[in-house]
Amino acid sequence: MSVRIDAIIVGLGAAGGLIATELARGGQKVVAIEKGAFYRQSDFLGKFDEIRYYCRSAIVPHMKSDPITWRPNEKTKAEVLPWASNTLGLGNPFQIPPSMGTGGGTLNWGGAAFRFREADFRMKSTIAERFSESALPEYTTLEDWPIDYRQMEPYFDRVEWELGVAGKAGNVNNTTVEGGNPFEASRSRDYPMPPIQRGAVDDLFCDTAKRMGYHPFPTPTAIATTDYKGRKACTNCGFCHGFPCHIGSKLSTHDLIKAAVEETGNLEIRPFSRVFRINKRADGRVKGVSYYDADSRIVDLEAEVVILACYALENARLLLNSGINGNGHVGKHLILHNYGWFNGVLPEITNSFMGSLQGGSIIDDYTSELIPDNEEGVLWGSPINTWTGDFQPIETIHGLPPHVPKWGKSFKDWMGQNFRRLFRMYSQHSTLPSNCYYVDLDPVVKDPFGQPALRITHEWTDYDAKAVEYFMRIKRKIAKEMGMLEWWEDSPTPNYHVTVHDVGTHRMGLDPNTSVTNPYGEVHECKGLYAVGGGQFVSQPSYNPTQMIFALAYLTSDHLLERV
Amino acid sequence: MSNMFFNEEEMGLVQAICSRLIPSEPDSPGAMEAQAYTYIDHALAGYFSHLQNYYRQRLHDFNRLANRYYGADYVRLAAEQQDELLHSIERMQVGEDSDDMRVFFEVIHEHTIEGTFGDPKYGGNRDFVGWRMIGFPGAQWGYTGEQMQLGYDSGQIEILSVTDLLKRHKEAEKEVSRS
């Protein structure tokens, strides 16, 4: 290739898609290498299809082509994700890494878009100050972030206004705003679009929560609620989480990338191509990557800068497979979310198949540092999130309450009576990073190209279960107050260990001895190589990670364009 | 024969199992009327082609169990006996092949659900039997704020398949470009 390439980007999801767009618009020549397809918007016009996108997992990785293994501890032999790898078609298609192809995980995400709280950047010192230095379990490698809310506020603002987030501010320039989140950190302005259409159950939830002394506010979503910057307003179709958007309302970097390719001429996308190695120069600086192209031929590509922007798990695999792990921290400090799913049935028809799952409200009264004093030893709180729409029949049947038979007349009657009355609450409990739970290369299992599969070593701890149970009690109280007819709960130690919010595998830090990247995502031991996305997280807030991934991607692209 | 994969005997057995998993009642059709069996037949000829031998063999074993415990082919048993056999397989209380059969029960159960509640283009959910059963309007371009109110009767909404919806969308698109 005779044209000079400024940057190679590996993976076009939340981080990679945004950085590719920003660099191309900033005048850099960018080649993006993507495992999946380069989609067209018309590919998704008929996306209202549970068989295709849920049962048969049309746009997410499959364990045959992209194997990942798991073991609960080092004494056990790892096997290909047992909850996801069933060749008989019985797998759980939700607990695997996010979708592939242009847009990556932003094709099938639910669109929840939260800023971190101020304390989320200082989880370790906040816990130490609030409780004691010894309050944290001994095994945890938790650290504070090397950046803070004040530095990131302009980037959160940019995500909300440039990319488009709908919501209601609760604290603008330290002034409380009615109807928003009274507990949020001060923001410089409101959201550019009003909250998404309320699900039918939302009034009931809010009235109940307020009566109980809580402060509900609308879940912020990266879903357009008015026509915004070329994106159409959401139609509330109810095929959202797990499905691509048919009209581009839900923010996907796919749309950004497509526009950048057409408008700048600076971005080339190579779909169906799999990077397997990062190459270094003799002086230690990054040289480029090697990848299998669409015809499985090995291609070596060189550039000044290489940006790994795959999922946190895959980024770790690429670093490890390239021998870039001088200080041993790659793959360590893995952090997951434990959701504490709480499903129930209401007496009223809620038409729970209509609209976004995020058409409800959330309470932050006990989130993060707002956790009440407690005897259980729970150190960090979580919101109570709601899930008001977006229920499809087959997924619902996979999660029936235990007392309902799976078949026969009773099954039929239950579904007939209750499919239109569903409501779900959940929370997002971050596991504590450690050296016990990590990812590395599987010594046995290989992908179809002969490259080692990633191996996850993870088990839920007593601490995780305690945190989930503490918040289950709150959910039960709310359910009772709402008049729910029945409810059923997920195990506090679920049988899956990929949560789509898996982060921390190449954490950022200022000290090259104890972290993998700097705050811009540049890998300490390899100049010119960047590893971006959730893998950079030092701790995980009790919110969805994607807005922070976008904010960090802006930080990286500003740095590469020498704006910071 | 219009089957893509099953022979007549296998199809009869699959239909009998589907009929018990989501039974038909007066005024309330089930998996049989939804033709969930057609979904399974088509899936085995396509997406699940790697399960062809698996299905064939397990159906054979299934019928052998019926003969062993009740002395007749499954299709000839009374509904109560058919249910009883399914229950005992589901609970793993039968014979030495129980584990295999229990897994097969899960597989055919899953496929019956998919064939009843999935989009009709895959061969099942005929006349939207599955979606009518639970009040689901299927593939809708969107819902309005008026519809998203507590207690709204979704029965007022015309049920659409993905194919129906795309046809309408094309017409709408044409209209937009004409205007």
Automatic annotation (TrEMBL), chain A:
<protein>
    <submittedName>
        <fullName>Gluconate 5-dehydrogenase</fullName>
    </submittedName>
</protein>
<feature type="compositionally biased region" description="Low complexity">
    <location>
        <begin position="172"/>
        <end position="181"/>
    </location>
</feature>
<keyword id="KW-0560">Oxidoreductase</keyword>
<keyword id="KW-0285">Flavoprotein</keyword>
<dbReference type="GO" id="GO:0016614">
    <property type="term" value="F:oxidoreductase activity, acting on CH-OH group of donors"/>
</dbReference>
<feature type="region of interest" description="Disordered">
    <location>
        <begin position="172"/>
        <end position="192"/>
    </location>
</feature>
<dbReference type="Pfam" id="PF00732">
    <property type="entry name" value="GMC_oxred_N"/>
</dbReference>
<comment type="similarity">
    <text>Belongs to the GMC oxidoreductase family.</text>
</comment>
<dbReference type="InterPro" id="IPR007867">
    <property type="entry name" value="GMC_OxRtase_C"/>
</dbReference>
<dbReference type="GO" id="GO:0050660">
    <property type="term" value="F:flavin adenine dinucleotide binding"/>
</dbReference>
<dbReference type="InterPro" id="IPR051473">
    <property type="entry name" value="P2Ox-like"/>
</dbReference>
<dbReference type="InterPro" id="IPR036188">
    <property type="entry name" value="FAD/NAD-bd_sf"/>
</dbReference>
<keyword id="KW-0274">FAD</keyword>
<dbReference type="Pfam" id="PF05199">
    <property type="entry name" value="GMC_oxred_C"/>
</dbReference>
<feature type="domain" description="Glucose-methanol-choline oxidoreductase C-terminal">
    <location>
        <begin position="438"/>
        <end position="553"/>
    </location>
</feature>
<dbReference type="InterPro" id="IPR000172">
    <property type="entry name" value="GMC_OxRdtase_N"/>
</dbReference>
<feature type="domain" description="Glucose-methanol-choline oxidoreductase N-terminal">
    <location>
        <begin position="149"/>
        <end position="337"/>
    </location>
</feature>
TrEMBL record, chain B:
<protein>
    <recommendedName>
        <fullName>Gluconate 2-dehydrogenase</fullName>
    </recommendedName>
</protein>
<dbReference type="InterPro" id="IPR027056">
    <property type="entry name" value="Gluconate_2DH_su3"/>
</dbReference>
<dbReference type="Pfam" id="PF13618">
    <property type="entry name" value="Gluconate_2-dh3"/>
</dbReference>
